[in-house]
Amino acid sequence: MQAQTKKATLNPALRKFWTSPARNRVLHGGRASSKSWDAAGFAVFLTNTYKIRFLCARQFQNKIAESVYSLLKVQIERFGLQHRFDIQRDKIINVATGSEFLFYGLWRSIDEIKSMEGIDVCWIEEAHNLTEEQWEILNPTLRKSGSQFWIIFNPRLSTDFVYRRFVTNPPPKTVVRQINYVENPFLSDTMLEIIESAKAEDYDSYEHVYLGVPRDDDDDSIIKRSWIMAAIDAHKVLGFAPRGVKRVGFDVADSGADKCANVYAHGSVVEWADEWKAGEDELLKSCKRTYNVAKEREAAVTYDSIGVGASVGAKFAEINEARRNEGETFLVRYSKFNAGGAVYEPDRNYQPGIKNSDMFSNIKAQAWWLVADRFRNTFNAVRNGETYSDDQLISISSETPYLERLIDELSTPKRDYDQNGRVKVESKKDLAKPNREGGPVPSPNLADAFVMCFPPDAGSLDVWTKLAQ
């Protein structure tokens, strides 16, 4: 089967799923299974036949391109219905039936959604991040007779709320359907070859990615996903403001498919992120890009100084010198972060009776654990009402670009140990191994840049002296 044979039609395997009476339609499974494609096709069919108001939602949506807008647009074109739909900048309207598609991010707009009237279908795409609190708001919001939820996702953890609520123990009037690539009649030979290769290399990873088998837990992760979710907009929930050092973390691409990344934090609040492809011969270009970000935000830079990044300090010095000669008064301060370097304040206790030098293998491990401590404190403050000062907490603005990927990357690396029993962070090399438990993952560039916003030596006078040079 070749991709070009795909026609504007629905997957016949899902016909019963879409037509059975239900309040909740739950469609889950692995990648390449046509879940979202089929949902978009059926949604276009319904809105072209009846007057229906669709609310298309996902957890984080900072721009329309992150929604199912493009998928619906493609299906409208494939059905040849462009003349019946008015595709606007932020909504889609059927001019013949009066149907409309609205697009919202749950995290930022849940209160606005709560006051909406006349919604017939709430389609929650990539619903694995749906929280129990959000469901308690959404469920009674759809009060129109015959209204429905479409809950579509690739399972992550068996402990996630959406999996427990709608798959393990589904409520009444719920139709649950698992579908995987083996039921997708439109899959290309190339994609089938990719899947078979993944199956041969690591069956457990293949089961999770392509058969939608959820992972049991994230107990081995340094930073638990639930902690990160509790930290989204935690500064608003807990009432603390961004204040303190402004810093940009700069993770430098090594080679191949690796990417550069920036993350910006003001005090305990992360507000922005960026990622881009750049080769080793483009280091100066990447440094200028990061420099301009720091200049715009009046921030210092902490950069990865291993490998290609070893030359970053020299590049920043060149840029500062050129600006000084041009009469500029604001020069960007910078410091290096050597992930394999010595632990900061080795003789100081990390916990009672445990020195930093006995706990951590290197400064990267120390940085990750200190960030994890902040996330755990934030979780306990948000969920359990515990009290901490703002420099013991952490918050991620819901407006941060690449937010969902940042959440994934922060919750992926697992704890490891050196030969002396000290903790360390799972290496990029180990993360990429085909036989890695949980499957191979790309380099966590955004997560590394994030952690560099909170280096263990952030408050030392020595560091600020170096930054000022």
From TrEMBL:
Coiled coil: none annotated. Pfam families: Terminase_3. InterPro entries: P-loop_NTPase, Phage_terminase_lsu, Terminase_L_N, Viral_DNA_packaging_terminase. It comes from the Bacteria. Residues 24-212 form the Phage terminase large subunit N-terminal domain. NCBIfam families: phage_term_2. PANTHER family: PBSX PHAGE TERMINASE LARGE SUBUNIT, PTHR39184. This is Phage terminase large subunit N-terminal domain-containing protein. It comes from Ralstonia edaphi.
